[in-house]
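Blinded run. Sample ID left blank on purpose so nobody reads anything into the name before looking at the predicted structure. Input follows.
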Amino acid sequence: MSGALDHGLWPWVALICFGFLPSEVWRVLAVFLSRGVDESSPVLAWVRAVASALLAGVVARLLLAPNGALATLPLWGRVGPLALGMIVYFLARRSVIAAVLAGEASIIAAGFWTG
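Blinded prediction complete.
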């Protein structure tokens, strides 16, 4: 008897079972538990501050101590796309999508330029 896992679908099943479902359970639970929570509460202000600090730390790490293919770019090839993304974010009326696309396009261009 030949199952779906014998036909090369096992990586997708593993991804769904071990990657998607465990985190999705917490997201759905958060939606139900967050009803009625005051958005201006001190706890949520603290959560936003911690999330912002973690994001800033990840960005600083990617800029100053990258690994992999990003490490082959010079510092200007990492800081320039970040600056361009921030400029586009504010010029495009706080559009995250526009900022990400501009930053991504410029970091790819920097990669091609530096070879």
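Unblinding after everyone has recorded impressions. The chain has a mean pLDDT of 90.
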